[in-house]
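Many introductory courses stop at the sequence. We go one step further.
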Amino acid sequence: MTYLQFHLVFTLPWLALLTFLAIRAVRQGRPLAREGVDDTFARRALWIHLILAFVYTTPWDNYLVFREVWGYPPGRVLATIFYVPVEEYAFFLIQTAGTALFLYFLMRARPWQRFEGALPEAWIRWLGSGLLLMLAVLGAAALAQPATTYLGLITAWALPVVAFQWAFGGDLLVRRWRLVLTAIGIPTLWLWLADRIAIGVEIWWISERFTTGLKPFGLPVEEALFFLITNVLVVFGITMALDEGAMERYKRLRASWREAWRVALLLWAVSMVPAPLVPEVFPALAYVSTSLLALGVLGFATWRYGSRALLGFAAAFAFGVAIEAIGFRTGIPFGAYEYTAPGPSLLGVPLLVPLGWWAFTVTSIVIAPRRARWLIAPLALVAWDVGLDPLMVQQGFWVFDAGAYFGVPLSNFVGWFLAGLLLTALLLQILPELRTETAPTIRWLYVGQAGFLGLGHVLFGNPVAGLVAFVVMMLIVGLSTVVEASDPKRRDA
């Protein structure tokens, strides 16, 4: 059987039947009106998803064939464009259209009950999207091993989009869970069967090297996941597009775009999860997480203080480059050390370092009690560094000539306090609003970092450093909480 014959047997009849039923339903006056939308909008949603599916899948699919994650025996395909057969490009569209039309068929067939009770919408959306993003990051980490390459390519490619969908309307999907699960489940089961047959008759092959070897009922688990997740993308997207509350939510989202910094901080938290679990990718994740943290804090500051936040960022970044360039050349004020970190640098200073000075200092200012902010903020920075420097020394980002505290000299912490004192004073001059800022989101960021550093040290085999870092940082949090509890002048975010 060729790939074209596969379509003639398994996919095109299914698509033709659903197309016929859709056209007949419209002619008989059974449109999607019961769902609160007209057929013109439904057709538009379908076309948009067809375009998105084709554009988003094409480079990914070509890369997989190029890597020989899967391939096609000679004589099974008509022709290829780049690395992918024309029948495969057709599959992108056939599956998307078929699943969407099956969803429309279900919508017309019966009045699906919608849950109208109270739901914790924010928890459903943000917790769910956070978990999905964590899985996506773990999937990216799985690329480090050949046996999990296909699994990692699927999850790193698809789950960020699913996470975005869920963040937008996870609660809308939960309210219609019967319809959503049915629309996903039945086409997925059919495609699993078709894929199992196609592999069995060698229309295409799946690499043994780049897969886990798990084959329930003879179908590689990666293939099962692929068809499941692609149907999820289609059903989630179109169900939300047709939901009567989606457009209003979209308008609110456009109006609140300036708060997108919260998404960057969520991604930062997610990026911290796999770092100790997959040490091989720690350097790359260190740059990713620090960049996301700096971006999130910059977005917060811009939202609060306008364009002056950019000046604050530039000043902190320049300060970080200058103090570190002086530091590793002279040993003042941190002690004698040298950088061994991979990645881009400026004047010999890895770029993640000045990004860290900006993000860490703003966060430390916000966590410090306002009555002594200029003094406690540098102490909060030192507490942060109690966990940070031993970890980065252990991971080979920099090395001190000598160090009594897990390879770090005590002079380093004195240097952090003095440098933090100077940078805190500078930022309070540029952004005087920071003198009274107590945004809970940023304060929780500091608490989260305490947890990440403590747990990270434990997983890297240094539990004492993790415990000390966590305790010291939480002491700063406790001090701030006690003092701020008696102060009624607070700004919340």
